[in-house]
């Protein structure tokens, strides 16, 4: 088992560690780690065999392989025994054919990957299942782990709390006070997590949770831990699977701590290595202008990078000024002809609303990706015939206050273009008829 997958330093030293070690950075050079797989073992099956196996398992009922993550277990975390897997049937989220929106902007083949349809309402579940499963096995093996902790802007804490509740493992979540929606805040509380709201931002929460994990025998669940990225890399694999193993031309994904960008590329590289695909998509990372350290580095050709103090943005989950996975993300973007785009607060909010008017129900982070799409189409950087995938990271129902305030024109720094406030009328037929006819005329 130990030869199937392992942690490996992403820096020059390439030192390796077992997956059941409690370690987040290389002990020799301090570099981040990534999960590496025994490719010689995986190559014993040809591409056709892998496709057939994954398709046979997809959304079936045999535990845990019906999960779209664990249906690809050999590529994700083969070291976890099936009986230790903690799964809530994650993955398998639908591809929304955004036909009407595509027609409006001049695209024939626009799709939105609805990752917010996972159990806790975000893409975080597809990574959290791997991490919590590994910790569950470590505890069963006798390791003294008192709980699992994370810093979060909302979605990670909800996911960790749900998976820990399912496994019976204590969860501790650190949230920036008054910077997450009430819908996100109530999720870890409902699942029994120790919920700590700190008077700081995400980066401040991250600094504290790292110290807690180091000194208190508590396992760290943030994306600096690459176990989560192994689950997240299945987004790209699943997209290809849903298109009968065809590769899209462009994928646009919101970026905050940047683990998702890194994981997305990693999935495509593995498919390429094992012969399932023969081309790569162009990966575009979209950031809020108020929290855009990767965009700033991109504008300098990735030759320089500086952490920033992220400013308040309606895209709260990506309000991060010092992303942990910056090096991983830059490496992936360079390998995938990548681009980084940014969006203002008005562009984000109006892109959300524009998409909603065509049947979507977007979170603000999806709005960042949509804003990037609109700009690139307008500049001619995406062609009408391109197959384009927008990664929608969370369910719009988590951000009801944002949507209400948009349609009431109560958001700072947002010029509302698609407002649709409800109309208050007397219970009178003539008044109601007049109002309807004024709108429909």
Structural features, described:
This protein is α/β, with parallel strands linked by helices. The protein has a domain at 95-119 and 228-407: 3-Layer(aba) Sandwich (Rossmann fold). It has 17 helices and 13 strands. It has a six-stranded mixed β-sheet, sandwiched between helices. A four-stranded parallel β-sheet has the order 8-7-6-9, with helices on both faces. A three-stranded antiparallel β-sheet has the order 2-1-3. The termini are far apart. The mean pLDDT is 95.
Quick rundown:
By secondary structure, the protein is an alpha/beta fold.
Percentage of residues in strands: 5-15%
Helix content: 25-40%
- SSE sequence, one letter per element: EEEHHHEHEHEHEHEHEHHEHEHHEHHEHH
CATH level 1 name of the domain at 95-119 and 228-407: Alpha Beta
The secondary structure category is: alpha/beta
What is the third-level CATH name, the topology of the domain at 95-119 and 228-407? Answer: Rossmann fold
Number of DSSP-assigned strands: 13
| Backbone shape | globular
Low-confidence segments, given as residue ranges, are: none
Cα distance, first to last residue?
Answer: 69 Å
Mean model confidence by pLDDT: 95
**Main β-sheet, spatial strand arrangement:** 4-5-13-10-11-12
Query: How is the main sheet built?
Result: 6 strands, mixed
Secondary structure tally, helices: 17
C-alpha-based Rg, rounded: 22 Å
CATH architecture of the domain at 95-119 and 228-407: 3-Layer(aba) Sandwich
